[in-house]
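ARCHIVE CARD
CATEGORY: sequence design from structure
SOURCE FIELD: tokenized fold
FIELD CONTENT:
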């Protein structure tokens, strides 16, 4: 059984149908990128995969023992979140909340995991720095470490490189690819950067309020949807 699958799934936002007629599956180790223009339903779908929004139709199935509270999530940041007055270690450690199972305090296992993720993402030297004093790229690495503390199976990212300069964007995408490749985590990422999508993903889901395409990167290049978008750089 697939790690995650949508079967004839659809969602509604403010009474309007979005992200409808979805039929796709994600296997362990996949790197799926979700593309489409603004308003296509990408973020709504992400909320559905996190079980924060119920489908208006169809079903979402999870296999391999995956639970919704075991999915790591890196959302788009608001201005208030970027100004969060906590140190880096506190932010990363908060990714272990779903592991406490009713315990009031973090234990040795959670603290060890947080340290491991800091090390894996190369941000251990930032451990005691204030989160709001970091650069945008550093903040995204911290949030990625936090998301990794929450999961050992599936990582969801919603426009993780938004607002970053091209060099930092490239470094972040390389880091996400490393997480997918070396840690074996399945990645589902929303992105407007079509060239990076074509470089790193192994599967693509293209939405335009409904599913236009789902398949491999090469199949996407050969599709009508891919022919329209793959020739450009970044689209909105």
């Amino acid at each position: 059984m697939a790690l995650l699958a949508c079967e004839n799934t659809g969602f509604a936002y403010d009474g309007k149908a979005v992200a409808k007629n979805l039929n796709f599956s994600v296997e362990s180790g996949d790197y799926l990128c979700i593309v489409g223009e603004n308003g296509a339903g990408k973020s709504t779908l992400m909320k559905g995969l996190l079980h924060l929004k119920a489908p208006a139709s169809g079903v979402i199935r999870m296999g391999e023992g995956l639970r919704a509270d075991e999915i790591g999530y890196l959302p788009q940041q608001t201005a208030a979140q970027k100004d969060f007055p906590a140190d880096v270690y506190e932010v990363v450690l908060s990714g272990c909340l779903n592991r406490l199972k009713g315990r009031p305090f973090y234990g040795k296992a959670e603290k060890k995991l947080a340290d491991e993720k800091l090390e894996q993402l190369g941000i251990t030297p930032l451990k005691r720095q204030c989160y709001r004093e970091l650069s945008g790229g550093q903040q995204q690495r911290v949030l990625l470490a936090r998301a990794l503390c929450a999961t050992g199976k599936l990582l969801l990212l919603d426009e993780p490189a938004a607002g970053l300069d091209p060099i930092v964007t490239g470094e972040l995408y390389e880091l996400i690819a490393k997480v997918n490749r070396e840690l074996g985590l399945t990645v589902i990422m929303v992105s407007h950067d079509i060239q990076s999508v074509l470089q790193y993903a192994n599967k693509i889901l293209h939405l335009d309020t409904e599913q236009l395409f789902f398949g491999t990167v090469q199949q996407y290049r050969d599709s009508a949807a891919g022919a329209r978008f793959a020739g450009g750089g970044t689209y909105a």
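CARD ANNOTATION: Residues 197 and 236 are 14 Å apart (CA to CA). Residues 232-236 have pLDDT under 50 and may be disordered.
SHELF: design records, drawer C
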